[in-house]
Each structure stands twice: as structure tokens, then as C-alpha cells.
Specification:
Blueprint lengths: L7 E5 L4 H12 L3 E6 L2 H11 L4 E4 L5 H15 L4 E4 L22 H28 L3 E6 L12 H21 L4 E8 L5 H13 L8 H12 L8 H12 L10 E4 L3 H6 L1
Parallel strand pairs: 1-2, 1-4, 2-3, 4-5, 5-6, 6-7
Helix pairs in contact: 1-8, 3-4, 4-5, 6-7
């Protein structure tokens, strides 16, 4: 029997990228998965590719009422909730909305607010919506997708980094509060993955770094990975998804309040 057989999971931001990889790993390990994404059509299409029982729902993960309604739909249709994966985030695909800095005085209030809303508030609203249903099941797992940006000094992306650090702090607080309810709360901190955000950042680097001006965006990203990652390879959605399934299963029954890096050793370069 698959280790998550009979479990019901939600993945926010699961229509593509890391979220889609997480949803596939959960499905492969036996869970029934609901994808909640701002892109309703994308959520439904991704769910159809997973399993006949999977469902896709359109909702803004940063909207408290919308998330409460969406989670209620999942519980009604699938019969409960055991695993909540808060992956939605990384809002904004231009310099202002990504909250890029250096110097910090260049960060706009709009960019700051977009990053805090799209990342930290999304985790707040999603956790709040899920907790009563996890309590009703007698326990479960919440897995928040943070970032190594929440653990390191990141002067180029201060708003994003602050939001991810907030997710790590929220993870610890909820782990302490919800432990008596047998709800485990952990955070995963991915390193360098090829995402829309990295595609945008590679474009910025192409314009600003002379040695990158004739390189393809993907090659720029891979060069950054090679220069900064001891293992010399990028992280993938499946890398994150496999850790999610472990944290959601019985093998992690005594693990809570942790932030776990999946970064190929990137942060070791900072620590040495």
C-alpha cells in the first residue's frame, strides 16, 4: 500500500511549477489531491492530469474568505483534509512588484505589499482555512513552502526574503500551538529552481551583467547554479515533492516546527 493511501491533500499554487511537482508526488504516493490556484482553468487541467479523483479549484490563496470557501469545497467533495501544502507565492513578474532593491530605498511600497500579500498572507489565509478541518480529522500535516531567501541576507530581494522569513516564523508558532492537536507544521526552503521568477531574474541579469548578454536565459540560470551550488545541480519540483510526501507521512511523525533546506548546499557557501 502506498504510504499516503486514503489521505486527502490540498496544494495551493499547484497548477504549474513547484506546486505541480508536489501534487504529482503526493498522487504517486497514494493521496487524493485538490489543487487550489488563482488560475482556475490551470488548476482543473493539472488535476485532470493527476487522477480521476483529483479536483482543481480557482481561488486566491491570499484571500481569507476565498480560501475558507475553497477548502470547504474540497472537504465536502473529497471527504476531509489530512495534508495542507501552502505553496502559492512568488507574486509579481516585474521589477516593482517583485520588490527588487539595492539600494533598499528603491523598493516601492507597492512592491513590498505585493510580496508580503502573495507569500506571507497566502500562508496565513491557507493555514487558517485548513486548521479546523485537520483538527476534525484528529491531526495531520501542514507544509509551508518557504525559501532559502528566508534564511539568508538577500539585499537584492528584501521584500520576498522578509515574506519567506515570516513564513518560517509562522511555521514555528503554529507547530507549537497545534502540537497538542497532533498537527505537525514544517517548512521547506528550496534553493535554485527554474521558475517564472528565475526566468525574469535571468532577464534582468542578461541586461545588467556583460558576460551574460549573449546567453540564453536558461543558460544564465544554470551558470548561477554551477557557481553557487556545491552539488552543482539545480533543484527540481520533484526534489521538493519527495520531501513533502515524507513530511506528510508516518515516517515524519515526530518532526514539527522545522525549516528544511533543499538547496544542493547553497547556504553552506554563506556559512563557511
Amino acid at each position: 500500500m502506498s504510504k499516503l493511501q486514503g489521505k486527502i491533500a490540498i496544494v495551493t499554487g499547484g497548477a504549474r511549477g513547484i506546486g505541480a511537482g508536489i501534487a504529482k508526488c503526493l498522487t504517486d504516493d497514494g493521496a487524493t489531491v485538490a489543487i487550489i490556484d488563482l488560475d482556475e482553468a490551470g488548476a482543473r487541467a493539472a488535476a485532470e492530469m493527476l487522477s480521476p479523483r483529483a479536483i482543481g479549484i480557482g481561488a486566491d490563496a491570499a484571500d481569507e474568505k476565498a480560501m475558507a470557501d475553497a477548502v470547504n469545497v474540497v472537504v465536502t467533495k473529497l471527504g476531509g483534509l489530512d495534508i495542507m501544502v501552502n505553496n502559492a507565492g512568488g507574486a509579481g513578474w516585474d521589477i516593482e512588484s517583485m520588490g527588487l532593491g539595492t539600494p533598499f530605498t528603491n523598493v516601492t511600497q507597492k512592491g513590498w505589499d505585493i510580496q508580503l500579500q502573495g507569500n506571507l498572507r497566502a500562508s496565513f489565509a491557507s493555514c487558517k482555512a485548513a486548521i479546523p478541518h485537520l483538527q476534525a480529522r484528529g491531526g495531520g500535516a501542514i507544509i509551508n513552502i518557504a525559501s532559502i531567501a528566508g534564511l539568508m541576507a538577500m539585499p537584492a530581494v528584501p521584500a520576498y526574503a522578509a515574506a519567506k522569513a515570516g513564513i518560517i516564523s509562522l511555521t514555528r508558532s503554529l507547530a507549537l500551538e497545534l502540537g497538542p492537536n497532533l498537527i505537525r507544521v514544517n517548512a521547506i526552503c528550496p534553493g535554485f529552481l527554474w521558475t517564472r521568477a528565475w526566468e525574469f531574474l535571468a532577464g534582468v541579469m542578461k541586461q545588467g551583467v556583460p558576460e551574460y548578454k549573449d546567453m540564453a536565459l536558461r543558460d544564465i540560470f544554470l551558470d548561477v547554479v554551477r557557481r553557487n551550488t556545491p552539488l552543482g545541480r539545480e533543484q527540481t519540483p520533484a526534489d521538493i515533492g519527495h520531501l513533502v510526501t515524507f513530511l506528510a507521512g508516518d515516517g515524519a511523525a515526530n518532526i514539527t516546527g522545522e525549516e528544511i533546506k533543499v538547496d544542493g548546499g547553497i547556504t553552506l557557501n554563506v556559512m563557511r
